[in-house]
Amino acid sequence: MTDPICPLCLRPIPPDVPQSLHHLVPKLKGGARGPVVLMHHICHREIHAALSEAELARSYATPEALRTHPRLAKFAEWVARRPPGFTSRVPGRRRR
Fold first, then answer.
1. Model-level pTM?
2. Which of 40, 52, 22 is nearest to 84 (CA)?
3. What are the residue ranges spanned by the domains of the chain?
């Protein structure tokens, strides 16, 4: 069986690396029972560092839309050059 692919960085997600489920529409914005995607924990943290819950619900509720956000696109390009198990602190400043 092949490892699932992270929808942000498009790298495989081996079972032994930190991973988490991302609600495409935030739970607080009505997405509690909505679709979720499995992703690397580092990618998930970057999404929430870059975007507010309102922005996620309004404009970034699909993996394709997430990859179009300038900060997330730059992050995905950067992290794609790392091995699938790479972990680090979220680079850059958190959103204000």
1. 0.86
2. 40
3. 19-79
